[in-house]
Amino acid sequence: xxxxxxxxxxxxxxxxxxxxxxxxxxxxxxxxxxxxxxxxxxxxxxxxxxxxxxxxxxxxxxxxxxxxxxxxxxxxxxxxxxxxxxxxxxxxxxxxxxxxxxxxxxxxxxxxxxxxxxxxxxxxxxxxxxxxxxxxxxxxxxxxxxxxxxxxxxxxxxxxxxxxxxxxxxxxxxxxxxxxxxxxxxxxxxxxxxxxxxxxxxxxxxxxxxxxxxxxxxxxxxxxxxxxxxxxxxxxxxxxxxxxxxxxxxxxxxxxxxxxxxxxxxxxxxxxxxxxxxxxxxxxxxxxxxxxxxxxxxxxxxxxxxxxxxxxxxxxxxxxxxxxxxxxxxxxxxxxxxxxxxxxxxxxxxxxxxxxxxxxxxxxxxxxxxxxx
DNA sequence: AACGCGGGGGT
DNA sequence: ACCCCAGCGTT
Length: 373
What we know:
- This protein is an alpha+beta fold.
- Helix content is 45%, strand content 14%.
- The protein contains 15 helices and 7 strands.
- The strands form 2 sheets. It has a 4-stranded mixed sheet. A 3-stranded antiparallel sheet has the order 3-2-7, with no helix packed on it.
- The longest helix has 21 residues, at 3-23.
- The model has no long low-confidence stretch (mean pLDDT 95).
- One of its GO terms (biological process) is base-excision repair.
């Protein structure tokens, strides 16, 4: 390592800290020193923008002010406060880990690296974030922001999609932490990535470390970081049944609980099926027959109309759901009573359930349109 | 190493 | 249309 590189590192840490103390955003979790609050914020911030997280964080800590209260709450309640935020296993893992902290560590978030990283839902990044931000320990917290900033500043061409690159970045990031400044430095690094050293068009003119940024000095800030492409999302075609109740269930709609594991685990949905391709999806007859047969297999005899009363698209990271909703009725409603996976909902009890956004939208639209008829 | 896992915003 | 976001768990 040349003297020049050492100077560059010292400069980086000092200038970045000076800048951060001047411009840092006033975020809810930065007003607290409670490790539990730091932890919650870091889990919510995984793959999720700051602006999206803020209202969720405020509601969450209001409802679950302490780790113990989170541990004692019904899981359903925790999920409800996560509704719309996505990656729901984060919420389940967070509560599971909170219960572990209560039973294993007396309800105090541990400050030992191995204990922290052993908590469910806490990986390398979050371990570093908790240790550095909550306890000011000199641990790196390398996320997408940090890899982008370091790739540019040091002009590194390593593919940031590779795990080995993250390991290298952690070593580098740790070597940059100014003595006793881990908490602010790590947040400053991410703040720079979020506000200045942005993915598309970085604001190099406003960057506190621009004079020694190798990527920029070589005019390559737009090419960095190097990242291999993700696979394109696959289209999935689906038909859903909007089953309207009769008699004592008049005004209600039949909904179904998703399986315990996997995509949107334990959340509620309109009963629906997948069809092979776009061609099948064009045919309403295909949807009608498919729904009737599939639900018959689950013991529900229904009649579906070849009439589309709603349509929606739901975009996940790895797939795209294209859903057409057919109007339908249940042939024998008494038969449903003892099926725990199925329930009747109305606008009155709608909020007692946890919905993926796509079904929240479809049902809300349905209830509104019906009132206008 | 590759894949599954939400939802939203920026360009 | 594509990319990215204060990533992690499973296989």
